[in-house]
Design brief:
Largest sheet: 3 strands, antiparallel
Order of helices and strands: EHEEEEHHHH
Number of helices: 5
Number of strands: 5
Strand content: 15-25%
Strand order of the largest sheet: 1-4-3
Distance between the termini: 20 Å
Radius of gyration: 20 Å
Structural class: alpha+beta
Shape: flat
């Protein structure tokens, strides 16, 4: 997943059916890398007046963070064999996603580490937050401090730029 979002039972069913149609069960297998939907999402009925408290549970979802693997395919197969149906699954997900092989994943992580080490800009996220410039700590959550601002900016929030 290149971006975060929620998966509900319909997305899980779509992934299961698409992968089931594309792979050979005698030589390959698929493993879920995300848990089953457990977070309740509430919604009020259409045409219901405001007030009256929280609405009933509408569905259950699973939160998926950026950089997370959703499903893993293995067995006696090459990446070229599984890439077409994994691309189809990635297009249908409610957040941006791409199919990656083990080598692609290692390359992406290596490039991210190289960018971090070769950064020439002296104003890093850590330095700005440590000095509390412009009172930034007031607007940051503990999760932002833990992730060091990794999932913000042009690449991850294109609609905000």
């Amino acid at each position: 997943a290149l971006g975060g979002g929620y998966l509900h039972w319909g997305h899980f069913e779509m992934i299961r059916l698409t992968i089931g149609r594309g792979m050979d069960p005698k030589t390959t297998f698929a493993i879920w890398r995300v848990p089953a939907p457990s977070k309740p999402v509430t919604r009020k009925s259409l045409g219901h007046r405001m007030g009256g408290g929280k609405g009933p549970i509408d569905r259950y979802v699973t939160a998926v963070k950026s950089g997370r693997l959703v499903v893993e395919v293995g067995g006696r197969c090459e990446f070229g064999e599984v890439k077409p149906f994994l691309t189809q699954v990635a297009r249908k997900l409610p957040f941006p996603a791409v199919p990656v092989s083990r080598h692609d994943l290692q390359r992406m992580r290596r490039e991210e580490e190289e960018k971090r080490l070769n950064n020439q800009n002296p104003w890093t996220f850590e330095r700005v937050v440590a000095a509390n410039m412009l009172g930034m700590r007031k607007y940051l959550s503990p999760r932002d401090l833990q992730l060091k601002g990794r999932y913000w900016g042009k690449f991850f929030l294109k609609h905000r730029v």
